[in-house]
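User: Design a sequence. Structure:
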């Protein structure tokens, strides 16, 4: 790795405005995370967890209330017997068939030893019995499904295994099944049901409102080709991008869409985003608002305009230039108390900023630990502009190394959105680096994943 020894590292050398100290990526992550906390815990029925979005996070430890299995049951179709009725040397004995045990019905009462009870897998074993001899090991040979059960006696012998699933051999009441902070998995839903639970205490799933700003935007769903956007106008891809990223991060997205570069329109859209509609009171809980665009220095930068003008609804404004490429202009605030993360509008900047700043915030809201970087070697060399952390879309090779993701036509410019198409991770190259060499170890942030099990309680 080639580094830049100039004292300009940490300053923004890449712009023609006067160089000034930029906020580090870590400081901006901390500023974002300082504004969010794990959401409250609510009891959600197991059926709703099974049917709903995956990956809910437990707010409480989960302990079994009932034993699994709940009773001693047959593990094979066959005959329930008392071992002392079968010769210890393994020779065969003929016993009268004294009853039937079926799944879903209590074991036949009485009977006692000296006989055999016809029993099907899953049926409770009679109290006096302590083993099941599989039917294929007996004179009966097999049961006919749905057929008569007429045999009056059966010849069988002691078997090496009892084929009885003992009450509570799997789970005992009070056993810890999962911890606060763990993700709800399909297996947990099933085991919890078996262990007598009907609901789990999970953190509320975060709801994130996303909206784009820019008078150049036309709704992407309107179609970019027909009708062709008027000159100078482009499809609003960012609100789709953010909504999909929010979902992938483990939250629900409310897509407000695009608003023009008009401060009052943005204020109204923010009210809409946080669920306040013309005096009707709070709407659905929104935990975070994410906007794109309008945060740089342009005359029509509407987010900056709203952040700069006094407003009762606006609090805790924090406008920052972050030592990050792409993704330098960033801002934070609260709108009607709801944390608002304002990302730059350039789609690659928005994508990178989401991965670095918003995905960790979603993880914290959900009760998870934010996704971590992993160490990967670079498969090839590339040059890196110094002065800011350079985030590079990469793809992971079968060897585990990463190579720079290139657009299908070979373009790999910092703002080529098509370079994102083949990327499965972002390489985070330190700000002093001018060249990444093949074999260099890099911090790489995988793009899938929602974070790891969290600490549970705040
Ligand atoms: N004089 C300066 N100009 C700029 C600076 C600066 O510091 N001084 N910073 C540059 C950097 S870095 C970035 S990044 C951009 C970010 O600017 P904004 O957040 O104000 O973004 P916009 O100007 O609104 O848009 C930038 C670019 O992205 C396109 N865009 C915006 N929204 C969408 C959307 N929803 N879907 C698709 N594409 C979108 C927009 O059309 C512009 O091309 O500012 C630099 N300028
Ligand atoms: O820093 Mo801007 O986000 O590169 O394009």
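Assistant: Done.
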């Amino acid at each position: 790795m080639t580094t830049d020894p100039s004292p300009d590292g940490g300053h923004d050398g890449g712009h023609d405005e006067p160089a000034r100290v930029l906020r580090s990526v870590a400081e901006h992550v901390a500023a974002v995370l300082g504004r969010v906390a794990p959401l409250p815990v609510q009891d959600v029925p197991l059926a709703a967890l099974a049917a709903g979005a995956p990956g809910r996070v437990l707010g409480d430890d989960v302990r079994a209330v009932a034993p699994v299995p709940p009773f001693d049951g047959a593990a094979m179709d066959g005959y329930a017997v008392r071992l002392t009725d079968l010769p210890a040397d393994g020779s065969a004995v003929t016993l009268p068939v004294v009853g039937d045990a079926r799944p879903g019905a209590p074991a036949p009462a009485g009977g006692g030893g000296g006989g055999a009870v016809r029993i099907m897998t899953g049926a409770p074993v009679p109290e006096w019995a302590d083993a099941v001899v599989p039917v294929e090991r007996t004179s009966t040979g097999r049961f006919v499904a749905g057929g008569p059960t007429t045999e009056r006696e059966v010849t069988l012998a002691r078997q090496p295994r009892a084929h009885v699933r003992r009450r509570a051999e799997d789970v005992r009441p009070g056993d810890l099944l999962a911890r606060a902070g763990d993700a709800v998995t399909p297996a947990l839903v099933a085991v919890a049901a078996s262990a007598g639970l009907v609901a789990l205490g999970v953190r509320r799933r975060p709801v994130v409102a996303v909206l784009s700003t820019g008078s150049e935007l036309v709704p992407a769903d309107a179609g970019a080709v027909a009708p062709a956007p008027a000159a100078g106008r482009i499809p609003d891809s960012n609100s789709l991008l953010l909504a999909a990223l929010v979902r992938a991060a483990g939250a629900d997205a409310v897509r407000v869409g695009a608003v023009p570069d008009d401060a009052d329109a943005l204020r109204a859209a923010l009210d809409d985003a946080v669920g306040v509609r013309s005096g009707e009171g709070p709407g659905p809980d929104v935990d975070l608002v994410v906007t794109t665009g309008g945060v740089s220095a342009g005359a029509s930068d509407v987010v900056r305009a709203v952040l700069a003008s006094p407003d009762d609804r606006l609090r805790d404004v924090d406008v920052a230039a972050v030592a990050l490429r792409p993704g330098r202009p960033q801002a934070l605030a609260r709108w009607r108390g709801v944390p608002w993360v304002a990302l730059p509008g350039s789609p690659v900047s928005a994508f990178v900023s989401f991965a670095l700043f918003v995905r960790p915030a979603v993880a914290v809201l959900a009760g998870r630990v934010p996704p971590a970087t992993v160490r990967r070697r670079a498969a090839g060399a590339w040059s890196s502009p110094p002065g800011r952390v350079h985030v590079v879309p990469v793809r992971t090779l079968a060897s585990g190394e990463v190579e720079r993701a290139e657009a299908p036509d070979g373009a790999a410019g910092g703002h080529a959105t098509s370079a994102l198409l083949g990327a499965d991770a972002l390489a985070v190259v330190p700000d002093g680096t001018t060249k990444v060499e093949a074999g260099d170890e890099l911090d790489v942030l995988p793009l899938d994943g929602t974070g790891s099990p969290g600490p549970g309680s705040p």
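The first strand starts at residue 2 and ends at 3. The chain has a mean pLDDT of 90.
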